[in-house]
Amino acid sequence: MLLRLPPSPVRPFLHKLLAAGLAAADPHQALLKTVSLNGASLRIGRRSFDLSHTKRVIAVGAGKASARMAQALEIVLGERLEDGLVIVKTGHSLPTRRTAILEAGHPIPNRAGLVATQRLLRLTQSLSPRDLLIVLLSGGASSLLPAPVSGVTLADKQRTTQLLLRCGATINEVNVVRKHLSLIKGGGLAASTSARIITLVLSDVIGDDLGSIGSGPTAADPSTFTEAVEVLQRYQIWPAVPSAVRRYLQRGQQGAVPETLKPGTPRGRSVHHHIIGSNHIMLEAVARESGLFTKLVSSPLTGEARVAAKQLVELGKAVRTGRSRVRRPYCVVAGGETTVTVTGHGKGGRAQEFAAAAATELSDLPNAWVVALGSDGTDGPTDAAGALVNNETVSRATRLKVDLHTALKRHNTYPALKKLGCHIHTGPTGTNVNDLYLFLQL
């Protein structure tokens, strides 16, 4: 994995921290630590599954980390794994021996994803109660598994997803709508097969809610059609979504089409889920590696990126001004997933917007630094994973005639941070466990 940081006095130190965090979130190693096969006994965490009467073992999955998970599962199961198919974001494919790796669009679903999902469903629908289906799930699966309900086209879902991503809706709110427009989300994948199911999860959701990770294809879903409608109305995009989407959701409210898989149903209770990695594991690894006094923030940073950036800087200041009076150097480590309510046609991502906003809060703090990093290696539709800024970023922007305030206003942070040389590049990391935020005063 490439990990390239901007030139700075703290680059070696930050490289060590970020590398430790990403390594801790590596789904390949996490799966190898969690899953083992001894004869006919499949062990996952502390639980064992008897495969002596299992006919076929098949793996399917989706998400930015699912190819790395598939590679590890092939090592564990060897010839016991008969077949497999996982869907990854374009550019995230990896070589496998028994598992087909298909690429598709993210964050906007595309036709490649539609065709791949149809192929995946044909495989799961062919299984019997004597078979075992292992589902490999990670962040990004929602977009990579498009299976529109009857009467709704892929273009309808694309338009709806675009509106949701630009309006500032949280990922949970986005997923409530997605589940009710899909044959596979909200437990639809579990309902598609009679096989036993074990789902291995790399969580990109704060709190590790199984119904939210990848929109919960094998998890029971308590949300309703009414809640999906309310999300679209709350953000005032109900009139803008395609009429087919509005009609289907209204039919769902009226009970004319089936709800998603609900908690308490036999199928909803029969799937075993195991989380193999999460944002918290990454944060703990960074904290251990720092060697400094480190405050690990327990609550995730959410909401608008620029507001969350100010919160992180305020937390950093409070470490020195609180009762403990911590001396420099020290570090604040946080995770989360912020949002950006986009207006206009600027280029950037939530991590870059976070970093640019943080830079405007750092000017009066000597030798202070902020890192904002997307753990999957891609921040928005750009080649950057995030950015590194410090207390001199604003003054340097003034010298170079880069207007950070206008860049933030227009959500056009990518060109501004590129000119300032603030970008962090990793390429596809093979994992996806939310974002990492660091505040340091050295």
Descriptive account of the structure:
The protein is an alpha/beta fold. It folds into 2 domains: 27-147 and 182-223 and 260-277, Rossmann fold, CATH 3.40.50; 280-441, 3-Layer(aba) Sandwich (glycerate kinase, domain 1), CATH 3.40.1480. 37% of the residues lie in helices and 19% in strands. The chain has 17 helices and 15 strands. It has helices at residues 11-24, 27-34, 66-77, 111-125, 141-144, 154-166, 171-179, 188-191, 225-234, 243-253, 266-269, 279-290, 305-321, 350-359, 393-399, 404-409, 413-420; strands spanning 35-38, 41-44, 47-50, 57-62, 83-89, 99-104, 132-138, 196-202, 272-277, 293-296, 330-336, 368-374, 386-390, 423-424, 435-441. The protein starts with 10 loop residues before the first helix and ends with a strand.
Summary?
This protein is an alpha/beta fold and 442 residues long.
Mean pLDDT: 94
* Helix share bin: 25-40%
Number of helices: 17
- Low-pLDDT ranges: none
Query: Numbering strands along the chain, what is their spatial order in the largest sheet?
Result: 6-5-4-7-8-9
- CATH homologous superfamily of the largest domain - what is it? Glycerate kinase, MOFRL-like N-terminal domain
List the helices and strands and how they pair.
Elements: H1 11-24, H2 27-34, E1 35-38, E2 41-44, E3 47-50, E4 57-62, H3 66-77, E5 83-89, E6 99-104, H4 111-125, E7 132-138, H5 141-144, H6 154-166, H7 171-179, H8 188-191, E8 196-202, H9 225-234, H10 243-253, H11 266-269, E9 272-277, H12 279-290, E10 293-296, H13 305-321, E11 330-336, H14 350-359, E12 368-374, E13 386-390, H15 393-399, H16 404-409, H17 413-420, E14 423-424, E15 435-441
Parallel strand pairs: 4-5, 4-7, 5-6, 7-8, 8-9, 10-11
Antiparallel strand pairs: 1-2, 2-3, 11-15, 12-13, 12-15, 13-14
Helix pairs in contact: 1-12, 2-3, 7-9, 9-10, 13-14
